[in-house]
Structures are given as structure tokens and as C-alpha cells.
Design goal:
6-stranded antiparallel sheet, globular, disordered N terminus, disordered C terminus
């Protein structure tokens, strides 16, 4: 994705909510995959119709709620494809009709259509399999598209796998999104076809075969690594897309996951502080300070979408009196530092200049937190905080921030968040908003305090488009849907 180009004009009309989105300023060369790569972060896609004559497109998503999430996100976050800024709004239509899908008078290309009737099993061939492929790996990338029934991995023409969904529509969505994509950057490329099999037969739950409908089957050995990721040191890159399939939006950064960042304050922006900022926009694999380029660092993100998101939201952000310059690096991954020569003397320990975050529990974009993509904002003067002990007070919070070197917030708003149904028995947490005098102060506070330990809890910070005044006003009427959604995902 590129970040320059003529802005799109705002829609003149305001239509009622619909699950059909009207997309304006679409470049003629934009592909289905590029639009799917963005939209499927919010929910399922039923069809796409390109209106080539007008540089527009219609996208039917799975629900009005999904459409609303996309429209709301686009109001405060520009979306660029092919050097153009897209504008998402509700369509006048409530569904895409058959004439449009079959190529109506203004349609240049047909949107994604389901595969052969009844085909709910995919045959996946993995090319260039540098890493071990297990059922956990395939489950991690396939499960966002539907309920998986069974997976069987075998070696016939290289490494192949059969993946069974519970319905053809889910299989179609997975094939559309993932065919031709890399599981790990630069390796393990997927070629996906439909299988003619009706049902897979699984006799044991191992790292190569799994029946998710029958957990009582005999078990076998687990594969190296955790959660489908490579074991520590196993390779240069990782897959963290969680349903995005490593898809690129196009432009100069296509396929790249490593960013180079300039304008860092050397005294305060160490690898952990850099992580605290970049982890808001995707999972961070590794960070390395560059000793030959003072105030600069390499940041490797989980996939190209996450790198895109970080670049889009953080480039030119002001931090400790300097403007960050975020660009794509020429490096495909961050290499390990060379160890000192045997017998060489080190005068004094050097500060940590690189750190691997690939297995860090502080990374937020996981299956356990599917709403992470819905609350991504550019730096604002308001921070949303969560996961504080229920008895934590405002003076304690201010003392913690100032003790870490941050400016004290000008406003604090607490509200309690009761444990959700899946957290029964856990202690009640405190969440709320912090307001600062300007965006720079808020960004600096986030860099210094995010992910800090508070008793046995980890403080979570993120930028918010809410304000304390806005929340107080909303409390007089209906509760804030946006704030509730953020709370549930933190």
C-alpha cells in the first residue's frame, strides 16, 4: 500500500445502514484480493462488484454490524490502495442483486463466487516448506473463516493437507483469502484447490491429523514450537495474520514486514518502548536498534498488513520532540547480531540493542482477541487503559506515570468492568480514560507505561477517539457503544 495520492471526495449523501458498502475512488487496477484483505479484517464478505466506469465498487459483507465497523473505522482512519484514498459508505442497496453479480451494465469484474456446490474440503499444497507444518499452524490461519471439522497433513506431492470445513461457504472464504499467500513470509506458499472428498477419516489426534469434532480420539506427539509458530530461532519470520493470509494491499511495501524507524529519542526509546507503540498496530516479531544510525531501529511486524498499519498510523508521529519517520526496510527480516569473537574482552555490558518478541504474550492480535483490528487509531490525546486492579486509585495511577518519566495526565476517568462470562471467578478489573494536554504527551506516556506490571496485572494502553467529556455526556443517556466494544476487547 502506498500513502500518497489524491484524496477521495466525501460522499454527498448519507444512506441508512446497510450490509452493502459503497467504495469510492477505487483504482482500475485494484484487485478482489486487495479489497478482501482490508474488509475481511472486520468480518465475512458475500460478494464484490467493481463499477469500473465510475472507479467505484460495491461490497456486500456478512452483516450490518460488520459494515458499520468499516464505515466507522474509515471516518477517522484513511485507507489507501494503489495510491488512492478509499471512501467507504453505506450503499442505497440492502444486497447485491444477481444482475450485478453476473456483470450488470456498470460492472467490470465479478465479485468472489462460491466454489463447486457442496465442496467443503480444501486440498492445500505447501510450496517451499522451510518450517514444520502442523495442524496447529493450519488451524491458526484457516479457523477465522469458519468452523473446522478435520485436518489431515500428508506427504505426496511435497507437503499437502486436506482441510474440512462444516460448510462450503467457509471453504470458499478461506480459499479466496489464502490461495497463493505465504504462511511464513517468503516460504510455505499455499496453493489451494477444492477436494472431491465428502469427509475426512481421522483415527488419532496428532500434530498431523486432527478431528475437532471428536477430542476423545487417541493423541499423538506435539510438534516443535508454540501455537503454530516456529520454535525459537527456527527461522527468520513468522505468520501472525490471523485470517489475513499475509495479504498485501499493493504499492511499494508489497510483501514486506520490516520497517525502519528514524527520529527515536536514544535516551528513552529502547526496544521495549518501541514495542509499546508498535504493538498497537500488529504483532511485533523483533526489534533491533541500529548502532551505526543513531536514533533509528528496525521493527519486524508479523505480516505485511501489520507493517502497513504501523507505517500508516505512526509515520510523522511526534515523540519526545522529534517526528518519527517510518519507512519500509530493504531487509526481508531482522538477522541475528553477530556474537563477539571467542576470547574478546567486553569493557562493560552494552544495553539491549535487539529483542525477539515473536512469542511474547504482550502481542495482542490473536484468536483470543479478534476485536483488536477494530480499535486501531492514529495517536490521539486520549488513552484508553485496562487491566488495573479494582482498588487502584487515581493518585496511584498518576504516581506510576510520573515515576516512569511520563507527564501526568490532565484528566482521569475510571469505570469498572465486570468479568465476562469466560472470565468467571476472576477479579474485577478497572478500566478508563486518560486525557493529556496534547497528542505528543499521550504518545510519550504510552511508550513509557504501556505493558507495565501493576501488582499481578499488566497495564494495557491504547489510543482512543473518546474523551472524558464525551463519556460523561453519554452516561446521562445511553452508554457508549464504542467504549463498550473497546472494553470487551482489552
Amino acid at each position: 500500500m502506498s500513502y500518497s495520492g489524491s484524496p477521495a471526495s466525501a460522499p454527498a449523501e448519507v444512506n441508512p445502514p446497510s450490509k452493502v458498502l459503497h467504495v469510492r475512488n477505487v483504482a482500475p487496477e485494484t484487485s478482489n484480493d486487495e479489497l478482501l484483505g482490508f474488509v475481511q479484517q472486520f468480518g465475512g464478505v458475500q460478494g464484490i462488484v467493481f463499477l469500473a466506469k465510475f472507479n467505484q465498487a460495491l461490497i456486500e459483507v456478512d452483516s450490518v454490524a460488520t459494515a458499520t465497523s468499516i464505515v466507522t473505522y474509515n471516518r477517522t482512519n484513511p485507507v489507501y490502495m494503489r495510491n488512492r484514498e478509499l471512501r467507504f459508505s453505506y450503499s442505497k442497496s440492502q444486497s447485491i442483486n444477481s444482475q450485478q453479480l453476473q456483470g450488470g451494465p456498470h460492472s467490470a469484474r465479478q465479485g468472489p463466487q462460491p466454489g463447486p456446490a457442496g465442496h467443503h474440503i480444501l486440498l492445500c499444497t505447501i510450496y517451499n516448506p522451510l518450517f514444520n507444518i502442523t495442524v496447529e499452524v493450519l488451524y491458526a490461519i484457516m479457523s477465522p473463516y469458519g468452523n473446522l471439522q478435520r485436518i489431515v497433513i500428508f506427504n505426496k506431492n511435497g507437503v499437502q493437507a486436506l482441510v474440512e470445513f462444516d460448510n462450503p461457504a467457509s471453504a470458499f472464504q478461506a480459499k479466496t483469502a489464502l490461495d497463493g499467500k505465504d504462511i511464513y513470509a517468503g516460504s510455505c506458499t499455499l496453493k489451494i484447490e477444492y477436494s472431491k472428498a465428502d469427509k475426512l477419516n481421522v483415527h488419532a489426534n496428532t500434530d498431523k491429523t486432527r478431528d475437532y469434532t471428536n477430542p476423545s480420539l487417541p493423541t499423538g506427539p506435539a510438534a516443535p514450537g508454540m501455537m503454530g509458530y516456529p520454535a525459537a530461532g527456527a527461522g527468520p519470520s513468522d505468520y501472525y495474520g490471523r485470517g489475513m493470509g499475509g495479504m498485501s494491499y499493493g504499492g511499494e511495501g508489497m510483501g514486506r514486514t520490516v520497517l525502519i524507524v528514524y527520529g527515536l529519542d536514544e535516551a528513552r526509546m529502547n526496544v521495549d518502548a518501541i514495542f509499546n507503540v508498535f504493538c498497537l498496530y500488529g504483532n511485533v516479531v523483533k526489534i533491533k536498534l541500529l548502532p551505526t544510525k543513531k536514533g533509528s531501529a528496525l521493527v519486524q511486524m508479523g505480516d505485511n498488513n501489520m507493517a502497513d498499519m504501523a507505517l500508516q498510523h505512526l509515520n510523522n508521529a511526534e515523540l519526545f520532540g522529534q517526528h518519527l519517520q517510518v519507512q519500509y526496510s530493504k531487509h526481508p527480516y531482522i538477522a541475528e547480531s553477530r556474537p563477539a569473537a571467542p576470547g574478546a574482552e567486553v569493557a562493560e555490558p552494552e544495553p539491549t540493542t535487539s529483542k525477539d518478541f515473536s512469542t511474547s504474550p504482550l502481542n495482542r492480535f490473536t484468536r483470543a482477541n479478534p476485536n483488536a483490528y477494530k480499535h486501531i487509531y492514529k495517536p490521539t490525546a486520549t488513552l484508553y487503559f485496562s487491566n488495573l486492579p479494582k482498588d487502584f486509585t487515581e493518585p496511584q495511577l498518576i504516581t506510576m506515570f510520573t515515576g516512569l518519566g511520563a507527564v501526568a495526565p490532565s484528566g482521569v476517568k475510571f469505570f469498572s468492568l465486570a468479568p465476562s462470562a469466560d472470565q468467571a471467578g476472576k477479579e474485577e478489573r478497572r478500566v478508563g480514560l486518560l486525557e493529556f494536554q496534547d497528542v505528543q504527551q499521550a504518545t510519550e506516556a504510552l511508550a513509557l507505561a504501556n505493558n507495565s506490571r501493576v501488582s499481578s496485572n499488566t497495564l494495557r494502553l491504547s489510543f482512543s477517539t473518546n474523551t472524558i467529556h464525551q463519556h460523561n455526556t453519554q452516561q446521562l443517556g445511553a452508554p457508549s457503544p464504542s467504549l463498550s466494544a473497546i472494553s470487551s476487547s482489552s
